[in-house]
Specification:
330 residues, alpha/beta, Rossmann fold, 7-stranded parallel sheet, 10 helices, 48% helix
Length: 330
């Protein structure tokens, strides 16, 4: 089932929406988009001052918002977030798991405590959110849980082992929940799988590569991801894939995991060889740096023309088309 076959949900201005990781990137854009629709928005993150700023922005856009300082790795903190949302909105209608972190570098170069924290935030944080939300959804017999995953949930990226593990785990947790909730037609589990997104994420990541981190173009605009999340709150679907790169990567993985592994590793090694140097940092892994709380990471490259993107896509299409035929014949 790709789309909800049940009755349309209530208007967004009647909904209470919880968003984790609401202070920057996709979370920030999503919160503002829900506010534009008049929703009651419950903003969760670690930085109280930035959350308070977001409350003001959401209120100005026509929504109603509250800030709840939350550590998604702490189950009690997340349960309290759900309770506060119910008190504020009178119900809990949509829960959006966005909070996430990355750590890049050779596996054994990155300290094990950094790997552990990535999994705690990216996977256990989502499980904590789902556990808190579903407790209320089951009482109400309705609710929408939206998980921000990535193409990394299908394709393993070298030099980001814990991140990849967390994203593969997210895909499995969502599938398991959907299976378990088949007899609860009013409850929906939705996954979003974008390619590289234009967010400040690279500046928040733990970076043990010694190089400046940038997403590979073409990046998905952050507002496009936010619009997708809001649309899922209105018409839930099991999953949505965003961006040509994400579709190509998924197709490549299906076609030839070995070739995908080789080409991905080759690409990343080439990038790291040519990238400018940068200091080793834990970024926002353990504590927020308080910086780069904007929506965009400024990675939308004006140097990459549509013609160049189309040419690259055409070459890739021919290559994978040939490989597809070879696979069928083998």
């Amino acid at each position: 089932m790709t789309a909800s076959k049940y009755l349309p949900t209530s208007p967004l201005n009647k909904k209470t929406v919880v968003i984790t990781g609401a202070t920057s990137g996709i979370g920030r854009a999503t919160a503002l988009e829900f506010a534009r629709h008049g929703a009651k928005v419950v903003l969760a993150a670690r930085q109280k001052d930035v959350l308070d700023e977001m409350v003001d922005l959401c209120d100005r856009l026509g929504g109603k918002a509250i800030a709840v300082v939350t550590d998604v790795t702490d189950p009690e903190s997340v349960m309290q977030l759900a309770k506060d949302a119910c008190i504020f909105g009178g119900s809990l209608d949509v829960w959006v798991n966005v909070a996430g972190l990355g750590a890049l570098g050779e596996f054994t170069t990155i300290p094990i405590e950094v790997h552990n924290q990535v999994v705690k935030v990216n996977l256990l944080g989502y499980i904590n959110g789902a556990h808190a939300a579903l407790t209320h959804f089951k009482k109400q017999k309705r609710g929408i849980l939206i998980n921000l995953n990535s193409v990394g949930g299908f394709v393993a990226f070298p030099y980001s082992v814990s991140y990849t593990a967390s994203k593969f785990g997210l895909r499995g947790y969502s599938e398991a929940l959907r299976a378990e909730l088949q007899d609860c037609p009013g409850i929906h589990i939705c996954d979003v799988f974008p390619g590289f997104v234009d967010t400040p994420g690279p500046s928040h990541a733990a970076n043990y590569t010694g190089k400046i981190l940038k997403p590979a173009p073409p990046v998905v605009p952050t507002y496009k991801v936010a619009h997708t999340v809001v649309s899922l709150a209105q018409k839930p679907k099991d999953s949505v894939t965003l961006g040509s790169a994400a579709y190509l990567a998924r197709f490549s993985q299906w076609l030839s995991p070995k070739l995908t592994r080789w080409s991905t590793t080759k690409f990343i090694k080439m990038y790291l060889k040519n990238a400018e140097p940068a200091p080793v940092t834990n970024g926002s892994i353990f504590e927020s740096t308080g910086a780069n709380n904007q929506i965009s990471g400024g990675f939308t490259s004006k140097k990459v023309s549509n013609k160049k993107v189309a040419r690259a896509a055409g070459v890739a299409g021919v290559l994978f088309g040939a490989l597809y035929v070879l696979k069928k014949l083998s």
